[in-house]
Write a structure and sequence with these properties.
6-stranded parallel beta sheet; 14 helices
Length: about 300
């Protein structure tokens, strides 16, 4: 029997499944719940336990981790008679690793405190590859003592783990992360179209660019997507659209102006409106190609 905390994991999507599996590999007993039966089968095959409901998953857990798409899903699994707050035991630690609005995280922390639960908001960056390799960057908001208690577990999921401040701070930093990533992908996409139309060897060009000041994690992670036009989702346009809504709203609230970010948010929204919401966010390349009169990758 493991002496490590018992973990309930809610949400086993593209990111959640490999993250939960990394906890199992690290020796944590994990009980999971999600809406997709095949994801539950995958968890069981990896050595985890399967629950039939949120209530069943969290009832005996020391730590509850949620990884769902957006604020409405977090609220749906947290509140109400069948939710986490109604069934988790007092003293349990709830770590929400979803990317949601900072205010949703703050409200959840206050509501959970009334039930005797501790909360951290701990969104991540690194995409599917980072989740699989357990090298995610994890930005955390909440009390220092709760962060210290959670750190050994988080170290099984990521490489860069930083407490950024009180409740909601992790989500604010994640919003900034998504702003930087979106602008970076858009710049890379524009460079790809420019290079190809100029007749340059794209692979060679991206290699040399990656070794200079233009190099970035985005370019390193997405180079193959660009060169092969493989837009199978690691992080979907739909989700980045949601995140750009979060950062633009939050920036408006604090009085920060995002001129380039606002433009890229519109380009992401346009791509989504054109039916590409289910593709990887590197598919911003398709939008640049359309604007450049090249429709070869738009079918």
């Amino acid at each position: 029997m493991s002496n490590l905390p018992k973990v309930a994991w809610i949400g086993l999507g593209i990111m959640g499944s490999p993250m939960a599996e990394n906890l199992i590999k690290a020796g944590y007993p994990v009980t999971g719940y999600t809406l997709e039966a095949d994801k539950l089968e995958r968890l069981a095959a990896s050595g985890g336990s399967v629950a039939g409901s949120v209530a069943e998953a969290v009832r005996d857990a020391d730590v509850i981790i949620t990884m769902v798409p957006a604020s409405p899903q977090v609220e749906a699994i947290a509140y109400g008679p069948d939710g986490i707050l109604a069934h988790a035991r007092r003293g349990a630690l709830l770590i929400d690793m979803s990317s949601i609005t900072p205010q949703t995280s703050i409200d959840l922390a206050h509501a959970a405190a009334d039930k005797g639960l501790r909360v951290l908001d701990a969104p991540v960056s690194g995409g599917e590859a980072g989740a699989i390799e357990a090298v995610l960057s994890i930005m955390v908001g909440g009390e220092q003592a709760d962060f210290d208690a959670a750190r050994p577990l988080l170290e099984a999921l990521g490489k860069t783990i930083v407490r950024c401040g009180p409740h909601g701070s992790g989500q604010t930093v994640k919003a900034a992360n998504q702003l930087i990533v979106a602008v970076n992908i858009q710049a890379c996409a524009e460079a790809v179209v420019f290079l190809e139309k100029s007749g340059v060897d794209l692979s060679a060009a991206l290699d040399v660019l990656g070794g200079g000041l233009a190099g970035s994690t985005v370019l390193a992670r997405k180079k193959d997507n660009f060169t092969t036009r493989d837009f199978r989702p690691g992080f979907r346009i739909d989700l980045h659209h949601k995140d750009m809504g979060i950062v633009t709203d939050a920036a408006r609230t604090v009085g920060a102006t995002l001129p380039v970010g606002s433009l890229v948010a519109q380009l992401i929204a346009a791509l989504r409106a054109q039916g590409d919401g289910g593709l990887d966010h590197s598919a911003l390349l398709r939008g640049v190609e359309r604007l450049s009169g090249d429709h070869t990758s738009t079918t």
